[in-house]
């Protein structure tokens, strides 16, 4: 018979895996992204692995374009806007601009393990209190889209 604690941990882990991602974070020199917008090293942007970006016939119209994600590493958090696809990234891994990478780690590291999720999505955090006790914290908020990106998406060619 499994204990209640074991069952709760298993439930929380499976729920958090469905709502959050983990993988490697690397950085790259941005240019024209798969979402159809030009960016530079100072922009707070991210390229997602194909598994998370999707396989839309027109990548400029991918549902993830313009969504914000929150990236967690070593007790720090940074936000970035999805503007690109990282064809060589494994599922859950991300490629970010140097500006985002520097918020979390030194560029010298080059590659670090991170967790991330879409800003505003639900997440279950499990805290081990010791002695077989855990604390489950569910967070939930509204979906966040970068307003600058949304204005770009809705602009006519003459406005660009």
Keywords:
160 residues; alpha+beta; six-stranded mixed beta barrel; globular
Report on this structure.
The strands form two sheets. This protein has a six-stranded mixed barrel. The protein has a two-stranded antiparallel ribbon with strand order 7-8. The termini are far apart. About 11% of the residues have low confidence. The protein is built from four helices and eight strands.
How do the strands and helices of this protein lay out in sequence?
Layout: H1 4-19, E1 21-27, E2 45-48, H2 50-53, E3 68-73, E4 76-85, E5 94-96, H3 98-104, E6 112-118, E7 123-130, E8 133-139, H4 147-154
Parallel strand pairs: 1-5, 2-4
Antiparallel strand pairs: 1-6, 2-5, 3-4, 3-6, 7-8
Q: Which stretches are poorly predicted, pLDDT < 50 over at least 5 residues?
A: 7-18, 140-144
Major sheet details: 6 strands, mixed, barrel
Judged by helices, strands and strand pairing, the structural class is: alpha+beta
**Distance separating the two termini:** 63 Å
Helix-strand pattern, N to C?
HEEHEEEHEEEH
């Amino acid at each position: 018979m499994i204990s209640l604690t074991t069952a709760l941990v298993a439930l929380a882990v499976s729920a958090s895996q469905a709502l959050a991602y983990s993988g490697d974070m690397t950085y790259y020199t941005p240019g024209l992204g798969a979402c159809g917008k030009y960016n530079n090293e100072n922009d707070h942007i991210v390229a997602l692995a194909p598994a998370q970006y999707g396989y839309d016939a027109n990548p400029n119209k991918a549902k993830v374009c313009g969504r914000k994600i929150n990236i967690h590493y070593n007790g720090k958090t940074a936000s970035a806007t999805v503007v690109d696809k990282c064809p060589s990234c494994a599922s859950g891994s991300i490629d970010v601009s140097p500006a985002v990478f520097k918020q979390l780690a030194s560029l010298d590291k080059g590659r670090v393990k991170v967790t991330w999720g879409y800003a505003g999505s639900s997440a279950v955090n499990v805290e081990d209190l010791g002695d077989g006790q855990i604390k489950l914290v569910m967070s939930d908020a509204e979906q966040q889209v970068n307003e600058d990106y949304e204005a770009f998406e809705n602009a006519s060619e003459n406005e660009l």
